[in-house]
Every structure is written in structure tokens, then in C-alpha cells.
Specification:
The protein is of the alpha+beta class. Helix content is about 20%, strand content about 30%. The strands form 3 sheets. Strands 9, 10, 11, 12, 13, 14, 15, 16 and 17 form a 9-stranded antiparallel beta sheet that branches.
Length: about 375
């Protein structure tokens, strides 16, 4: 055999050996585990990826839960006790409409993934003083069907530890305690669920979770949950002088900690401005009816309108369509057939719900000394 033939044979043997080596490598999880990357497209055309050999020096460790005053659905949850799990931390407060609209997704994820390594922890960080009451929070937890642990962060100890500034806000913490995902506000549900699945897959692949893209959540969310924020023209409006972003429409204006007899000086109302009638006490976080009867009027532009209210009393709501031509008086989900609502606790009440976005005027007649109203919110 000449040198050319020998070289050809040796080259052929080398190629066969190389191919065999690749076959062994790519079919051996023990050998290639450190190089696996799963990349998935989400519904918004973005990418959600997991790299099992991730350099975690770029991520922050999640701080421990601090300053917790009470626990619901838990005997004392600590983040350090959850090492080895994927943890979704949700900052919320029960009267916040933005938080309320996210809760069905959290309840769904808890049902789908709690037995696969996911633990959801709700950090209830109150905006208003009444939201610190554990009985109020317990009633909300029951009303919203929450089964996962809820921790009362009444002094915002955990809120501050995470340097948070938003309701709602979701952090995903991986099985080693690193914050791997952060979402502020509503939306991003498919992206969030993909992130959950990816971290569960990264956790070890032993929970029958694949890091493939989720196309839908199989969740029946009420139509009222769907919100187009670009079409809401009225911002959240606060009644308390401490939080108010604009003045009242009344000439009397705010008078901190004083009782004011408000009158309507003009029938022409400015949009997105609160008008009052009757005797009201100006509290830092609310308006409190001191007289027997009062009225609240607002021109707003949205599809739905809510109030956060408490105390005692009954309200009667009348709504009008654009330019007051079309009457739609009893559209709120919490109103009875006569447009009435008896206040049964300190919470959010839906007092107007329409098929489409548009301009409306709402008039609320209030009966009962001690009624308190904190905000108008919109959807």
C-alpha cells in the first residue's frame, strides 16, 4: 500500500472517530448538561431563554422577608426556608384595582405549578391605614380565592428591603435565591408564565416541566379584566389631601382636618375633577361625610369606574353617557337593580361598567354619617 492510500485510510478512520465522539457527547446528559440553552418565542415576539450554566454573578440575591406583622395561609414563611424552590413574590394591596386584576393569574399559576416546585408568596404592603387590618385582608384573601401564603408587610419592611415602589410588582426567585425576573404593573402574563416554566425546568428537569413557550394560560378572565390603558383618559383620583394630585372642583378646595360645607357653584363641570356637596371632613387619606346626606359628581373617560370606600352608609349611583344624552344609570357590578349599594366593608366597589370606552358623568348620592371615600379608579 502506498503513502497516499495509507493517508486516505487514516483520514477515514479519524472522521469516523470524530462522528462517533459527537454522537456519544450529544446523547449523554452527563457530558453536555452544562451547555444546554432553551430559547422560546413568546406571544409578543420576544425571547424567553434559560441557560442551565448561567453565570449568576449578574443577578442579585433576594433579601429575606422583613418586618412581617402577620401571616395568612402560613405558619411563618421565610424566604430562606424556600431554598430549592422557585418563588414568585407578589407585592400587592387588596383595594388596588391593578392588583385585583392580576390575582386570577396568580391563583391559576399556583394551581398549575405548586406541585412542581413553585411557591407564590403574596407580600401585602398597604397603601391605606385600613388595609393593615388582618381581618380585612383575610376577607379579601377568601374573596379572591387565594390559597398561597400572604404576609402582612404593614410597616413596609419587606417593601423597603426589595427597594420596591409599585403595586403590583412580581419578582421571580430561582432555586438558589437569585432574582431572575422582575415585572411591574399589570400585563406580561404569558411572559411571566414562560419565566416560571423556564426556572422550573432549570431547577433540575425532574418535575416534568419543559421550558417550551406557553401560548395561552387556559384561564377564563372576565371581560372586565381586559384593559386598554391608552383609552383611559382619567387618572386615579384621590380624595385625601395628602395624596391628591389636583384640587377639588369646588371653590372651597381642601382644608386639612377641617369640616367643610361644600356647594356646587356651577353646573358646568371640568373633566377629571372631583366635586362634592354637603358637609365633609378633610382627612389625610379620605373624605368623610359628616352631614346626613352628601353628593359626589365626576366627569370621567373610561370603560369602568370604581371607588375605594368604607365606613357606614348607602349610596345611589346615576350615570350618564357623553353630553348627558344617554342614560345608563345602574351599570356597576356592585349595584343592585335600583343603582343602590350598602357599604359592607373597607374595600373596592365597582359602580360603573360599560361595553366601550367613552365619556360619562357619574353622580353619587350618599346617605349616612361616617361614610368614607378614598379613591376613584378606572378600567
Amino acid at each position: 500500500m502506498n503513502k497516499d492510500n495509507i493517508s486516505a485510510v487514516l483520514t477515514g478512520v479519524a472522521v469516523v472517530a470524530l462522528i462517533a465522539g459527537f454522537a456519544v457527547y450529544f446523547n449523554s446528559p452527563e457530558l453536555n448538561q452544562q451547555s444546554v440553552r432553551s430559547t422560546n418565542s413568546n406571544s409578543n415576539g420576544g425571547l424567553s431563554s434559560v441557560q442551565l450554566s448561567t453565570d449568576k454573578s449578574q443577578f442579585k440575591k433576594a433579601p429575606e422577608f422583613e418586618g412581617i406583622s402577620a401571616y395568612i395561609n402560613s405558619n411563618g414563611t421565610k424566604l430562606s426556608d424556600l431554598k430549592g424552590k422557585v418563588v414568585l413574590i407578589d407585592f400587592w394591596t387588596y383595594s388596588c384595582i391593578n392588583c385585583i386584576r392580576t390575582l386570577p393569574y396568580l391563583v391559576d399559576w399556583n394551581h398549575k405549578y405548586s406541585d412542581k416546585g413553585l411557591v407564590i408568596v403574596g407580600i401585602h404592603s398597604p397603601e391605606f391605614e385600613f388595609e393593615k387590618g388582618i381581618d380585612n385582608v383575610k376577607q379579601a384573601v377568601t374573596r379572591f380565592g387565594i390559597k398561597y401564603p400572604v404576609l402582612l408587610d404593614n410597616d413596609h419592611g419587606t417593601w423597603n428591603a426589595f427597594q420596591n415602589s409599585y403595586w403590583p410588582r412580581k419578582y421571580l426567585v430561582d432555586s438558589e435565591g437569585f432574582i431572575r425576573y422582575d415585572h411591574i404593573g399589570e400585563g406580561g402574563y404569558l411572559e411571566t408564565e414562560n419565566a416560571i416554566r423556564n426556572l422550573l425546568a432549570e431547577r433540575g428537569g425532574k418535575q416534568n416541566i419543559s421550558p417550551t413557550s406557553v401560548n395561552q394560560t387556559n384561564l377564563s378572565v372576565p371581560e372586565s379584566q381586559s384593559v386598554d390603558f391608552n383609552q383611559i383618559k382619567t387618572p386615579e383620583l384621590y380624595f385625601g389631601y395628602q395624596y391628591a394630585r389636583s384640587q377639588l372642583g369646588n371653590n372651597e378646595g381642601f382644608d386639612p382636618e377641617k369640616i367643610v360645607n361644600y356647594t356646587l357653584a356651577s353646573s358646568k363641570l371640568k373633566p377629571n375633577v372631583i366635586y362634592l356637596e354637603g358637609e365633609w371632613k378633610n382627612n389625610a387619606d379620605s373624605m368623610e361625610l359628616v352631614g346626613k346626606d352628601g353628593k359626589i359628581i365626576l366627569d370621567y373617560s373610561a370603560k369602568s369606574i370604581n371607588i375605594v370606600a368604607g365606613g357606614k352608609g348607602e349610596i345611589t349611583v346615576m350615570e350618564f353617557g357623553k353630553d348627558n344624552q344617554t342614560s345608563n344609570p345602574y351599570s356597576g357590578n356592585d349595584l343592585d337593580s335600583e343603582g343602590k349599594l350598602t357599604i359592607d366593608g373597607q374595600r373596592l366597589y365597582n359602580i360603573g361598567s360599560h361595553q366601550d370606552y367613552g365619556n360619562h358623568q357619574i353622580a353619587i348620592d350618599v346617605s349616612g354619617t361616617g361614610f368614607r371615600i378614598y379613591t376613584f379608579t378606572f378600567g
